[in-house]
Amino acid sequence: MNLFCVGLSHHNADVETLERFGGNAEIDCLLRSSGCTEVLLLATCNRVEIYGVSESLVSTLDIARCLDRKIDQHISPEPAPFYRYEDAQCVRHLFRVACGLDSMVIGETEILGQAKKAYEAARSNGAAGRYLHRLFQRAFRVAKHVRTHTEITRGAVSVGSVAVDLAQKIFGNLRSCKVLVLGAGETSEKTARALVSRGVTDLRVSNRSAERADNLADSVAARAVPFQSWLDQCREIDILVASTSSEAPLLSRSELEPLLRGRIDRPLFIIDIAVPRNVDANVDALNGVYLYDIDSLQSIAEQSLAMRREQIAAAEEIIAQHVAEFDESMARGLKRAPQGSEHPSVGESSLRPSEL
After folding, report:
1. Are 36 and 58 in contact (CB under 8 A)?
2. Within the chain, which residue ranges are assigned CATH 3.30.460.30?
3. 3-state class of 1 per DSSP?
4. What is the CA radius of gyration of the chain?
5. CATH architecture of 2-153+311-340
6. Is 283 helix (H, G, I), strand (E, B) or coil?
7. Is the pLDDT reported for residue 133 higher than 50?
8. Which of helix, strand or coil describes residue 289?
9. pTM of the entire structure?
10. Number of Cβ atoms within 10 Å of the Cβ of 314
11. How far apart are CA 132 and CA 38, in angstroms?
């Protein structure tokens, strides 16, 4: 069996490329058209990766065709620069991803939860079998090992916290700022908590699901805003943080421009950490509006790398040990059942002995 990973990330793709390939992936297509016997899609705000198992070689182009959202089943003459890892290199890459070593913010912890959700989705629809099961269960163990035995997570450890760092650089003291968080998912929650920790007292939350907005607002002492009226908030807020799962932009220049007429000498800073982006890029052309997206956060994330650099070597050593152990178990044909899972909630106990 061939184990491989094909992907794009912030390392080799800008946000437009991630939008193109990350928002329209179909697991059924990958299983049906690419020749994979097992497949798992890991798509986040700054990466889209396919982990596959196949009996014969599956080309990167075949995977890219299934991911391309611009032209159905067709890749342009110059496809995006997908990276590819095989066998032990694929194992090492996933372990680094799960531990946060491959993230824009080194040591961030959101990716582990995202990997678990991707695994659960693949298992529930039958796309992931015994090979990917064994691989991802080990990845979760490695992540716990690294987080327990290193300080790799010290400091700002999420895209949301980096976004808040940016806001603080712009405004200084955030205590007097009015902030609206658009979205109520995991990234929005972490961003909201980071804002509160930096002194924000006027925090508002809006989401398509009023219940989710209310729950998030209650948990961070914020105020929920009905989704149908969130745009009106742009007349008075100082910062808008957008992080919804919408496939289409929620804010355009034509919608925002009329709301800015009463904001004389009051800039509006917009931090769009969604992929696909929630805010149309043409908004940045408006006077007094400053738009930052995932690409803009890269330089800030790089600054946090210095304080973690000494921890990376220790984490890499742990990963190397686990890669060697996993490679040995693969060579034995995965005949032994996995040891007790560190994360039974993601399905370890659901496998019958015959499946292992």
Report:
1. yes
2. 2-153+311-340
3. coil
4. 21
5. 2-Layer Sandwich (3.30)
6. helix
7. yes
8. strand
9. 0.66
10. 14
11. 7
- Which tokens is 83 given? 């990276």
User: End-to-end CA distance of the chain, in Å?
Assistant: 15
**For the packed helices 110-124 and 87-99, what is the interaxial angle rounded to 10 degrees?**
130
The catalytic residue positions are 45
Instruction: Report the C-alpha dihedral over residues 75, 79, 83, 86, rounded to 10 degrees.
Output: 40
**Paired tokens of 92:** 């090492």
C-alpha span between 123 and 349 (Å, rounded)? 12
CA distances from 249 to 114, 189, 192, 308 (A): 23, 21, 21, 35
Distance CA 268, CA 150 (A): 39
In the chain, list all ranges with CATH 3.40.50.720.
159-304
Q: How far is CA 316 from CA 89, 173, 232, 302, 319, in A?
A: 13, 37, 48, 19, 5
Q: Model confidence over 231-278: pLDDT tens digits?
A: 999 999 999 999 998 989 999 999 999 999 878 778 899 999 898 899
Place of tokens 């700054």: 46
- DSSP code per residue over 136-173: HHHHHHHHHHHHHHS-TT-S--SHHHHHHHHHHHHHS-
Tally of CB atoms within 10 A around 218:
11
Q: Specify the pLDDT at position 349.
A: 33
ω into 249 cis (within 30 of 0): no
Question: Per-residue pLDDT for 93 more than 80?
Answer: yes
Q: How do residues 4-54 score in pLDDT, each as one tens digit?
A: 999 999 998 988 888 888 765 566 666 666 788 999 999 888 899 999 999
- Classify domain 159-304 at the CATH superfamily level: NAD(P)-binding Rossmann-like Domain (3.40.50.720)
Mean pLDDT of 135-141: 97
Is residue 108 very low, low, confident or very high in pLDDT (cuts 50, 70, 90)? confident
The CB density around residue 2, as the number of other CB atoms within 10 Å, is: 17
Q: State how far the alpha carbon of 31 is from the alpha carbons of 49, 51, 58, 81, in Å.
A: 15, 11, 11, 22
What's the rounded Cα separation, in Å, for the pair 312 and 82?
25
Q: Are strands 178-182 and 202-206 parallel, antiparallel or unpaired?
A: parallel
